[in-house]
Amino acid sequence: MALARVSPTAFSLSLLHSLSRPFSSSSSPVLRPKGFSIAAALSHGDPLEEGAVEEAPRPSSRLPWKPTCLYYTQGKCTMMNDTLHLEKFNHNLLMNLPVNASAADKMKPQKLDYILVLDLEGKVEILEFPVIMIDAQSMEFIDSFHRFVRPTAMSEQRIREYIEGKYGKFGVDRVWHDTAIPFEEVLREFEGWIRDHKLWKKEQGGALNGAAFVTCGNWDLKTKVPEQCKVSKIELPSYLMEWINLKDIYLNFYNRRATGMMTMMRELQMPIVGSHHLGIDDAKNIARIVQHMLADGAVMQITARRHPTTSEVKFLFKNRIR
């Protein structure tokens, strides 16, 4: 097992513990409301931010959805003693990804221990690198990594225009400017994160240990990361050579095609939480889809693998989204 299983603890203790983890939004679970059904755990949310869909009904026991403090996910929140700030923003992503024990009734054995949901943002250069880590055996949220990424091959004026167009509509452009770091630094911090979770050793290289990335499509790891590595003049890391395209798993499990995250959520009757195309919110919503599919009995398997020498990508599923 790559990491010791996490058991529920009191919310007050988990929040205090999470403050000691500067490079993750939270690592300690929250005590879940009793009687919280799988439908509530995996389908309902409280979309409040601009760009989110209308709020769905929720059980009275459900903790209210709150937007995530994005300064906190960068390890830079200085408002932890401000009551109004804590009332407005979420500092523990588990609140958005709860799972009841009864959800595991239909689960199939998984070859993986952990799933890393990755959903990049940025068409010219990568602007956001969010990862949600969940336990593949229990569907529990374990931890998260989130960094805003500063382009290195664009002028400052172009960057300002790019960020205003991308994040201004969400009201998080200021957070981006205050916290974004170059892609090479993001990867360095991410490697420290996966080493801390015993998922990878730099000295050994190779793929992840007992874990795999899940992406909604092949673009993130087939196209965008290699492009960004060339721009940043660094080698493509060994742990980014294989992944699970959730669209292919969805197609083979439910026998129907889904063009993207929104289609999956609509077909699974899962309202979106947060803002679509804000990477950390999309990663949380994709993680919710993964939880839902695991609860339905789906098995997460590697769907694509890149050859380390030729860089050719081999797709492992015959029936797949092209």
UniProtKB/TrEMBL annotation:
Keyword Hydrolase in the entry? The reply is yes
Among its keywords, does the record have Ribosomal protein? no
Coiled-coil region(s): none
Q: Where's the Exonuclease domain?
A: 114-299
CDD domains of this UniProt entry? ERI-1_3'hExo_like
Keywords, comma-separated and alphabetical: Exonuclease, Hydrolase, Nuclease
Q: Which InterPro entries match?
A: 3-5_Exoribonuclease, ERI-1_3'hExo-like, Ribonucl_H
One of the record's GO molecular function terms: 3'-5'-RNA exonuclease activity
SMART domains linked: EXOIII
According to its UniProt record, what is one Pfam family this protein matches?
Answer: RNase_T
Q: Which PANTHER family match?
A: 3'-5' EXONUCLEASE ERI1-RELATED, 3'-5' EXORIBONUCLEASE 1-RELATED
- Protein name per Swiss-Prot or TrEMBL: Exonuclease domain-containing protein
Q: What is the lineage of its organism?
A: Eukaryota, Viridiplantae, Streptophyta, Embryophyta, Tracheophyta
